[in-house]
Amino acid sequence: MIGKKTNWPVTVLLMLASLCVLLPFYLTITIALKTPQEMAGNLLALPQSWEFENFSRAIEMTNFFNAFGNSAFVTIFVVIFTVLTNSMVAYAIARNMHKKFYKFLFYYFISAMFIPFPIIMLPIVNQTSAWGMDNLAGLIVLYVVYNLSFNMFIYIGYIRSIPKELEEAAIMDGASTWGVFWKVIFPLLAPMNATVAILTCLGAWNDFLLPLVIVSDRDLATLPVVQYVFQSQFSTDYNLAFASYLMALAPMIIVYILAQKWIISGVMKGSIK
Amino acid sequence: MTDKAMKAKVRTARLPLQKKRVSLSKESNVFLFMAVPGFILFFIFHTYPALQGIFYSFTDWKGYGDWNFVGIKNYLNVFKDARALDAYIFTFQFAVLSTIIVNIISMLIALGLNAKIKFQKTLRAIFFLPFILSILIVGFIFNFIFTHLLPTLGQNLGIELLSKNILGDPDLAWIGIVIVAVWQAVAFNTILYLAGLVTITEDLYEAASIDGAGRWTQFWKITFPLIAPFFTINMVLAMKGFLMVFDQIVALTGGGPGTSTESISLLIYRGGFEGGQFAYQSANAVIYFVVIVIISIIQLKVLERREAGN
C-alpha cells in the first residue's frame, strides 16, 4: 500500500480537498480588505487595493481592544490555574486509587462528562449572579472547575505510568508529598501539561455559550460574544464584519502558525490517552 | 513555617520509632488537601446546579418569584410539546448524519495523509486548522457563503440548486448546518484516525500483499480492525458533540426559518432565558441528559461488540 514512490494521485486529491478548508480563509481575508463597492463585483476576486479602514472602523465600533483584553485575561488565567490545579487533583487521585474515596472521586469527575451543559445552564446563571460571580473572575473559576472532568481522563492514565520508585527515592531524601509533586511529578507531566494547556486555551478563547449566559455586563464581553452582539449592527456591511471576525480569529491563527507542530502532537497525545 | 509543622518536626525527631506512621498520615493529609477542594468546588458549581435543575423540573418556577410543586406535569408536557419533539427529531437527524459524514471524510483524509505523499506536514497543518477556530465565527463566515457567494455562483453558472439561499428554506437550512459542523469536526477526527494509523507497521501490508490481498481487502482486514478503537472513540465523541449543537445554529439560522433548525440546546436556552420556562426547560434538560446517556451507552456497547467481533 505504501510504496517508496510518492503517491501523486493522493497528493493531488488532498490538495484539492484542502482548498475546501482554505476557501473560507481566503474569503475572510479578501473581504476584510475590500470596499463595499467591490462587493458588487466578483466575490472571489482579490481586493483592488488594501482597505485597512475596515479594521480601524471595526476596532472602534466593537471596542475590539477591550474585548480582546477580556478574552486574553480569561484565557491566560484559565490556562495557568487549570494546569496547576487539575494536575494536582489528578495526582492525588492517581496515587490513591486503591482507596474508596479516591476511586469514587475518579468516577465522579469522569461521569460528569456525560452531563450536558444545558441541565446546569439555567441554575448556574442564577447561582453566579446571586454570588456576584457574573464577571470574568467567575468565568475563570467555572472553566477551571469544569475542566477537571475531562482532564482527570487525560492526566490520571499518564501519572499511573510514572514509576512510583521516583517518588519513593525523593521521599527517602526527605521531600514531603507536596514537594514531591511540585519538584518531581509536575515537571514529568510536561507533555500532558502542554496538551491540557493547548486544549484549555482553545476552549476558553473560542467558547461562546458560557460567557454569553454568565457575563451580563457588556463591557466584559469576550470576542465571540462581541461578534454575536454586533451581528445586527454589522448588517450588510460585510467588509466591516469580516474585518472584525478576522481580528477575533487572528490571535489563535498566529499561535497555530508558530506552534503548529506542538499543537497537533499535543492534541494527538491527549486523544490517545 | 507554621507552628504545627514545627511541632510535627520536633515530634518526629524525638520519636524515631513513630516516624513512619506520622509521615504516612501526613502524606494522606496532603493528598486530601490536594483533592478535596477540587471536589468541593466541582460539587458547588457542577453537581449542585444539576441537582437544582432536576429539583426545579418538578415545580412551576419561572426563574423568579414563587413556585409550587407540580409533580411530573412538566415532563408530560414536554412529551406533548410539538416544538420540543421537532427539536429532538432535528437534533438526532443532524447528529446521526453529521457523525457518519465526519467519520467517513476524516477517515479518508487520514488514510491520504498517512500515504506516501508530498507536502505531508503542510497538508496536515491545513486540515487541522479548523479545529482552532471559534465555531460561532466560522458559522458567521459560512452564513455569508450560503447567503451571497453560492447563490451568486449558482446564478452565474446557471445551476438552479445553488442559486438560492439554502438557509432561507425551511427544508434545506439543515444542510448548511451539517456542512459547517462537518467542516469543523473533520479536523479533530482526522487527527485521531491519523494517530491510530501511524501505529500500523508497514510489514503487515507487505505480508498481506504477498498473500495477494488487494487494497480494499487490506483496508477491511488490516487497517480498519486495527483502528477500530479510534473509530469507537470518534463515533461516541462526535455524536455527543453534535447532540449539543448550539453555536453553529446561532450563527447560521438562529433556529429558523421558523423553528425548523432549532436544536435541543437552543430550545432550552431560549425557553429558559427568554420565555420564562425555567422549570419546564429544566424538565426538558433532564430528558435530554437521559437520552444522551442512553445513546452513549448503546453506542459503546454496539461498537465494542463490533471491535470484539473483528
SSE string of chain B: HHHHHHHHHHHH
Apparent shape of chain B: globular
Under the CATH scheme, which architecture of the largest domain in chain B would be assigned? Answer: Orthogonal Bundle
Number of strands of chain B: 0
Indicate the CATH topology of the largest domain in chain B: MetI-like fold
Strand tally of chain A:
0
Order of helices and strands of chain A: HHHHHHHHHHHHH
Characteristic terms for this protein:
heterodimer; A: 273 residues; mainly alpha; 2 domains; 76% helix; 0% strand; globular; B: 310 residues; MetI-like fold; 12 helices
How would you summarize the topology of this molecule?
The complex is a heterodimer of chains A (273) and B (310).
Chain A: H1 8-33, H2 53-62, H3 64-94, H4 100-111, H5 117-130, H6 136-160, H7 165-172, H8 177-188, H9 190-206, H10 209-214, H11 223-229, H12 231-234, H13 238-272
Helix pairs in contact in A: 1-13, 2-13, 3-4, 3-6, 3-9, 4-6, 6-9, 7-8, 9-13
Chain B: H1 3-14, H2 19-56, H3 73-80, H4 82-114, H5 120-128, H6 135-157, H7 173-197, H8 202-210, H9 215-243, H10 247-252, H11 264-273, H12 278-309
Helix pairs in contact in B: 3-12, 4-7, 4-9, 6-7, 7-9, 9-12, 11-12
Report on the structure:
The complex is a heterodimer of chains A (273) and B (310). Chain A is 76% helix and 0% strand. Chain A has 13 helices and no strands. In chain A, α3 (64-94) packs parallel to α6 (136-160), α6 runs antiparallel to α9 (190-206) and α7 packs across α8. The two termini of chain A are 28 Å apart. Chain B has helices at 3-14, 19-56, 73-80, 82-114, 120-128, 135-157, 173-197, 202-210, 215-243, 247-252, 264-273, 278-309. Chain B folds into 2 domains: 20-56, no CATH class; 73-309, MetI-like fold, CATH 1.10.3720.10. Chain B is an all-alpha fold. The termini of chain B are far apart. Chains A and B meet through α1, α3, α4, α5 and α6 of A and α2, α4, α5, α6 and α7 of B.
